[in-house]
Records
---
Amino acid sequence: MDTSRPRGIVVFGGGTATNSLVDVFESIRESRNCSLSYVIPISDNGGSSSELIRVFGGPDAWAGIGDIRSRLVRLIPDSESDTERASIKELFNHRLSPDPLQARLQWLDIVEGRDKLWTNISSEKRELIRSVFNHVNLEIVKKARPSSVFNFSKASIGNLFLTGARVFTGSLESAIYLLSTICCIPPTICALPAINTNFTHHISAGLADGSHITGQNAISHPSAPTALPDDPLATSRETEEHDRIEDGTLPGSLPTLRKQYIDFSKSYHGSDDLPARIQRIWYINPYGHEIAPHANPKVLDAVRRAGAVIYSIGSLYTSIVPSLVLRGVGAALAAPGVRYKVLILNSSIDRETGPSSEPLTATEFVRAIARAATESQGDFEAGEEGKVEMRRYVTHLIYLEGEGVPRVNKDELGALGIDCIRVYGRRAEGMLQYDETGLARALEAVIGKPEMLRSRRNTSGQ
């Protein structure tokens, strides 16, 4: 390995929240002249992804496709003079009409190259993209049955493209590579699915009161309780009803994993609280049995080559923890080569980090990350207080101060060996948010520029 080249940066996070900080992470990457890898979980089964999972199922669809697509499109380099890039971004970010009939008609216009979204996209790229759209459209038509047809309502064009590329190539990585190439993403930046798989993976959450919630959408977003009912007869009846539908899900799969979640709310109110705190996250197969998947080898390689790991803002238990509990991740994070492990603390409490009457503190955020990382190494007693050396997985905490933010006890965290850095934020639409310039300065103060790192080595050992 070339030791003169700065070690890379790895960011663990989900979709929307991390997308808001892409420019911050890019500025740090540029200052260090290093690689930047985004690790994205593939367990999201909500939105238009739920319909792709339901209809394609098995090896032809995977959860989390929306977060991967949104990151790749967000990473398209800005250019005021390049109108094609702006059009490609608009195309892959576009969602069809909420009305299923209107959505289907617009989809056909896009497939046939007649929609105005194709404006300013060169003919060679247009025909390449259209060939993938034609392929996924053919698969949708082939899978249509009297009891099950694809619902195009609110469908993401980018998600449909990734699905078509995945079906055509037989490879998730190849589909991501194709979209990355079309989006002109630099080779020093990559989006890595947490699991490199041809199958859908789902998660379950165990709550402190002993109940379970199945599926990421049910964990994150207000919905009816989805713990397995006590009445096995009721479960059997619902499963049998779903088995009569000829879709892409396996017979006997849990009913909650086979439903459409095209419409859901991302807003959080105290009335949407979970009945108890989340204690643990694990992966399940379609029948609800716990499994322990291996992490994507490229994720492990990126962490081993990293000098800094950043846990981004977003959903703690559905955007960060699902990547950390995968086999191999905890050991890679604990390696001495990864010098800085920075948690950017959320600016507010959400459904996952409540209930509102007893919200998680900053220390409990750190403990959740450390527990997930140790569980990935087979230690399932790690949740017991005092058993985890939390500094092995989090060395620094960056946080905001203000109403509604998680409470930060600097003395408590300092005793655990975790340095706390407060930054100033700004109010936007009533929400406290990180100021990009201030956050970038805080990260540079922790991670340091290459010149700063050389200076530290010279003053300490030469």
---
Amino acid sequence: MVTSVPLGLQRIFDARLPACSYFSGNRRAIEDPSIEFTTSSSSIMDLQALILSINTGIQNKAYDSIRSIFSSFGGQQRRGSVGQGEQRSLSAHFIQATVASPTFLPDAFDHIEDVIIKALGHLPVTVENAADNQLRQKLFEHKINHPTNTDYAGAARILAELRMDDDNNSVYYISPADKMNVFVKIAECFLNEDETEQADAAVTKAGSVVQRVDASNNKALLLRYKSTYARVLDANRKFMQAAQRYHELSEAFDLVDAESLLQMLGRAVTCAILAPSGPQRQRILAHIYKDARLDQLDSIQGMESHSQIMKKMYMHQILQPQELVKFESSLADHQKAVMGDGLTIMERGVIEHNMVAVANLYQSIYITELARILRVPPEKAEMTAASMIMDGSLRGSIDQVEGLLNFEEEEEEEVILDRSISSFCIELNNVTDAIKASAM
């Protein structure tokens, strides 16, 4: 049976919490009784009862009553007793009424968080005043500030469901800076729970917005983004890029206090030490080596040996195991990971560094002697040398008959650059000549 909405239903919709507009999709039907509601009279009666129960439950903090309404079990007074469209409108009413109540939150989060999340996942296309976004923000703050049960990952997932629109006329419009702030918050929360894949996805989304953010008015936000990006690179063991980002952050003198800048410098040193050996790492080490604040790291707890190790790496000096004890104890769990070859990241990095240091001392060396210096079995020393030769981080050759590793003199970067430019110019001339010849 199709029926017009009676004028008496207006009083039901406005009962108890008049500040909220509960059924925005049916407002015209409410205001104009000549418009027909495609709802049976029994459904309207169910809605009346459900709305009254929700309003009373919110005012009295009757959590069990509210839970029963949104449960898939129970009698007539439950959401399932009405159609899908009415269920969504009922959820929207509950969300708006919850946000409008001055006393219901935040206590309700500790009692019926699952019901609130269920309602947030079953809404119409639009909720007036973006009340669902307001509630998600409140739940996010509750989760990260909970005195006994902080839930960063849960908070991030709640915030990730915010509805964000670029249309200025939309109730869900959010500026580029605010959108970027949301993504950075999500990434920060996932990093706190070591969920690096989700943090990476969130910081990537933040990066897609960064060009639209006014840098002059959002310096602090951009700094948070850069810091979070560096932490994500670090957590994903992309130590080369992380070291560069951390060092750039350590030079933000006008935005961050000196102690925090030193912490960033220390992280840059850590990542530079753990980065794979090669010319790129040597350039990063050179930048950090020239930093006048490097020796100040000796006074920071957990970083007492950072400057000494970094200097020896930059100078291609052999590192001894006893020099690395304090440094290793300062590493985070993801920086202590054991790789496929059975070595930790630090062990492999130190072996590769010492290999390069040996190359600066010898023209050739027996594999057995090399193994003694590196403190690894001869087979491991030979495999490491072969791998470094193949990836270009070491210039040399292995004489397996004699058991010798022969080193070749490293070329200066300027020489390599000049050769690359000359090669490019020759290739460009060849292409130009070929074009001219084909045109004749």
